[in-house]
Amino acid sequence: MVCVVLIIRTYALYNCSKRLLMWIIIIVLALAGGVSAGTFGYYSSNTNVLPGVGCYETYTTETAARFGLAWLAIFVFELLIFVLTVYRIYKIRGLLRLSLVTGRNILDIIFRDGAMYFGAMTLSNIPNILTYYCESDITRGSMATFTSCISVTLISRLMLNLHESVDAGIFSTPARDEDHGLAVFTTRVSVQSAISSHHW
């Protein structure tokens, strides 16, 4: 689900470019196909998952390498989305106007939140990947749950930040400037629709 949200954000940032969406989907399918072949391929019948301690499973070196491949594919996908986001905002705003500290408009918020998401996920994903390849049998994959929880939490925060910056509420309707026919950045709340939708 996190990947779907990242794809939708990038698709919107590129003005709903169908060509970009097609390429992202092709890359996602290629990554998923490679991971599936590596994880469930020819040698998967030889997979040994040893009983672990508590909720954790213990993986052999070969099995851990296959599961590590899946986390590596997720990291590559997040890197792709981050590069696409930085490139698009660079093309729109220029290099000198990229800022992580201001939240003046939606582009600043998308860039700031995207950079923070990628940074935090890199800091949790790389150690997670390394546990599959470098650690002992007991600690292999021990950070997977933490990394998944961080990913979901950060993407939720990312979407809430975006929603907070551009929307006055769920029951608001955009106001229009009748003189010029241009949309303005204020909203009027339709109280009647809010009341009727809560009435049984």
Please count the beta strands (DSSP E, at least 2 residues each): 4
Q: Structural class, judged by helices and strands? A: mainly alpha
- Unreliable stretches (pLDDT < 50, length at least 5) are 175-200
Discrete helix count: 6
Q: Distance between the terminal alpha carbons, to the nearest Å?
A: 32 Å
Biggest β-sheet strands, sense, barrel: 2 strands, antiparallel
From the spread of the alpha carbons, the general shape counts as globular
In angstroms, what is the radius of gyration?
A: 22 Å
Strand fraction equals 5-15%
Which series of helices and strands comes N to C? HHEEHHHEEH
- Average pLDDT rating: 76
Spatial strand sequence of the major β-sheet: 1-2
> Roughly what percent helix?
55-70%
Detailed description of the structure:
With 200 residues, the protein is mainly α. The chain is 64% helix and 8% strand. The strands form two sheets. A two-stranded antiparallel sheet has the order 1-2. Strands 3-4 form a two-stranded antiparallel ribbon. A hairpin with a 7-residue loop joins strand 1 (49-50) and strand 2.
